[in-house]
Each structure stands twice: as C-alpha cells, then as structure tokens.
Fold this sequence. Notes:
The protein has nine helices and ten strands. By secondary structure, it is of the alpha+beta class.
Amino acid sequence: MEGVVVLSAALTTPEACRGWRGAVASDLPLGAGLSSSAALELAVARACAQVWDIGWDPPRAAALAQRAENTWVGAATGPLDQLACASSVAGHALQIDFRDRAMTPVPIPDTAVLAIFDTGTRRQLVTSAYATRRADCERAASQLRVASLRDVGAELPPDAARRLDPTALRRARHIVSDNQRVRDFGDALRQGDLARAGAVLTDGHQSLRDDFEVSSLALDAAVAASEAAPGCYGARMTGGGFAGCVIALVQAGGADAFAEQAVARYHAKTGLEGRVYLCRPVEGTTLL
Length: 288
C-alpha cells in the first residue's frame, strides 16, 4: 500500500509561508493503526516545503510532525510513525534506533510481500491506553533503577519478578524482548531467512497480546487466520492496538491465494468482513 496522500497546492500570496489551498485524497483507512495521521502531517509538510521553496529534510520534517501530534492533537506518541512516513526506502524495512535516531534500511527479499489485514474494527480511547502503557514502562524502569528499559539489555535481570509489580513485569518483559525481536527480524531479512522473520512476527504478537495487553479478539483472529492461510511466514498486530490491522509476511507467488483464504477464515471465525492489502515498501513522502 503506497498510502498516497496527494495535495494540490498553490500560494495564496506572493510571500512564502503565508498559506496555500490544497485538496487531500488518501487510500489509507482511517483509525486502523496505519499511521494515517502521520501520513497527512508529512504530506502537508512536503507540500509546504515545495510551495515555499524551503528544501526538504525528512528527519526534521518528521520531528515537526511529531511535535504537532504531541502539542496540537495531544497524543504523547513517539516519532516512529513520522520517521517511517518521511524516511522510508523503497524495497526496504526501516530499522530505527530511537536513542540517536539512526536509521538503517533493511532489504526485503523480492520473494516476499507484506500483507496488511484490516480487521474492520476501529480503536477508541487508544490515546489514554497509550499513556497508561507508557506510565507502566516508566514505573518498571524506575523499579529496575534504569533510565529506560532500553538500558536493561537483552534480558530482564533474574530478580525482576521480585523488584517489579506484576503489571510492570509484563510490560518490561514485552519491551525488552521486543527490542531483541527488532534486531532478530532485521538479521533474518538480511540473511533472506523469511521463515525466521515470520517466526519473530508471530512471537511478537504473542508478547503484545499477553504481556503488553494491547490486542483484541478480532486482532487475534486475524493473526490466526493469516497464519493458517497458504504462504504465510508469520503475522502480528500493528499500530496502537485494541483494533485495526495485522501485518503478515507472505510468499509473493501465492499472495492472492493467501488474501482470499485469510479473509474467509477470519469471517468464518468472527462474522466480520476483513480486507487484505498486498504491499511492497515504497520511498518515504515524495512529490508525484
């Protein structure tokens, strides 16, 4: 899914930075956890850079878009969505170190496609849930006496269960293990080991479901339906959680059959109408 957001814009005055009129069109489903708000923010920023002739700096634009999300919308989110929208590389996943904002493109083999499974459900009150999870993680870091759970390393300390309350323990276990999964997924892609990459996705969903507790019956059903369909290496929920979409790594040659069977299995299980988008990574926010 290219997530096209097209803006037709023109300056309304001869002076730069004084405004313009634009029209927006998007093929990203709203509220589905696919970063439609970040896509719009970056599209507007790209249009501004063009019509005001101020140059285009993707990381800087992503930081400004995140600021808008935090201060105007009021969602205390990190920069993941904006950086992915602005700085992605065609044909690659983007591995981001959020401590120093270093970005490393990781090639995705041509033999695989990404399937976005829209469950047809939409999240509500995700902002408050996000804030709660963030507070849980900050509490866990404090109880472990580290500045961030990133500083724990690849595994929780042996006495973590004694030092952490039960909720903080689950949150910390997810964060620490998911940090490692990011590295494992990147390594698997570089080696062309799609089976291993898929297993990392599946393991990640189990952690999101059981330890971070941001999944839902619909998301779990979509993951199960995806994994039971032909050609699927693995799947996990994506986005803020509780509703929205699942992402699956799928054999390119059988992607259409995968989509048909996954949707049918999901409908049989839930009675809901799902939809699968078959995608390849494209370049970040660009002019058409």
